[in-house]
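so my prof wants the structure for this chain in the tokens format not the other one, which i didnt know existed until like an hour ago. anyway here's the sequence
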Amino acid sequence: MSATLTSWKEIAKYIGKGVRTVQRWERMLRFPVRRPIANQKGIVLADTEEIDAWMASSTVRTGSDSSFELTRLRTMVAEMLAENALLRSELERLSGSTDTAPPGARQLRNGDRSQRKIERPITTRTSATRTATQSTARKSRGKTDR
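here's what i got, hopefully its the right format
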């Protein structure tokens, strides 16, 4: 037997969502509500059988769907972690060592400094050098110092 819900609060409580969510679903997803007086936004009626049918056929995610999705994702992560461990052990076996660093990095760590990047010293300009440079730039543009 179907019941008639007569307010946004009753409808929201029936489906376990908030009032604003149900109103948004009405606007965007054609949630089944009726208005006894046309163009009167405050008064709504909804039939529980229509709501149940809409929920079953809609793409709206309910709590049970999201828990199923969460379980599915956790299973996928566990499978990927297992595959990752298998691939790491295979890499270690093929490289012949337990060091997982790239070959170039091992070479640098073992003392081969010929491949290291040479750092250039950082030069700083003093305020006198900066003032002289600015003065030269002004003269080249035709301006003079005052």
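also thought this was worth mentioning. The first strand starts at residue 4 and ends at 5.
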